[in-house]
Known about the structure:
Layout: H1 2-25, E1 31-35, H2 42-58, E2 62-66, H3 73-80, E3 88-92, H4 95-102, E4 114-130, H5 138-147, E5 153-156, H6 162-174, E6 179-182, H7 186-195, E7 200-204, H8 205-214, E8 217-222, E9 248-256, H9 261-274, H10 278-286, H11 299-320
Parallel strand pairs: 1-2, 1-3, 5-6, 5-7
Antiparallel strand pairs: 3-9, 4-7, 4-8, 4-9
Helix pairs in contact: 1-9, 2-9, 2-10, 4-11
Amino acid sequence: xxxxxxxxxxxxxxxxxxxxxxxxxxxxxxxxxxxxxxxxxxxxxxxxxxxxxxxxxxxxxxxxxxxxxxxxxxxxxxxxxxxxxxxxxxxxxxxxxxxxxxxxxxxxxxxxxxxxxxxxxxxxxxxxxxxxxxxxxxxxxxxxxxxxxxxxxxxxxxxxxxxxxxxxxxxxxxxxxxxxxxxxxxxxxxxxxxxxxxxxxxxxxxxxxxxxxxxxxxxxxxxxxxxxxxxxxxxxxxxxxxxxxxxxxxxxxxxxxxxxxxxxxxxxxxxxxxxxxxxxxxxxxxxxxxxxxxxxxxxxxxxxxxxxxxxxxxxxxxxxxxxxx
Length: 325
């Protein structure tokens, strides 16, 4: 028995030493950050800004790989199956939480297949339409939709996308279901909104701010508690008469389950530095958002956020009866 205990103690010591050695040399090669959506979309934009700053801090390049499809679940599954060595990461938005209910058969267990690095940002949403849409304000838009629900079209970037989730909540909030048009990504959805082929979209400021500023689409409200500095003339949903409708699309950085704690800590510290980078702050501001504070860019904060959001969205999705499989 004494020999067994001694052997176990020795093995544990070697494991600790090996883990410590890994942390000291990490990273010694390129890190891949999987974005589970198409290039050029809001989550991709956020990821590339953060990855560039973290690359400088860690001394190794963080390359972004877009693995789109199935509402972000294909990219997430890739990371869940990857070696837990810190060289394959996932940057995902709120869809990480909603997919747990939207997809009744997932290739991974959302709450148990990943380790956590930290929250990155929470992006406000905007309710926008084609530029020549008739209603003058949000109240008028809601009245118009209710009167023309069989003709009005709502674009989204596919089931599980931020625009789909926001659109679903908007329909629930105004107690009116109308025609939805899913696309294979944010880009095609925005293209058709710009071209007037669809009427309405509810999407992140990271995707709509420049179009709003350029007057190529019409904005009715932002879903944040206060007006945005980058869009000062656009009222909040509360100001515009849609009480209680506040939606933020949060983003988090994850690693495969079993990643050494020392590696997670190093990644979290690097993320915190990146979110204080003046260039990141400035670019995020241009997109209508802010980096998460240091207290939120931690494994514990992201874990708590994901758990609470899975619980929050489950009844909403089940009530709508909209599933992806």
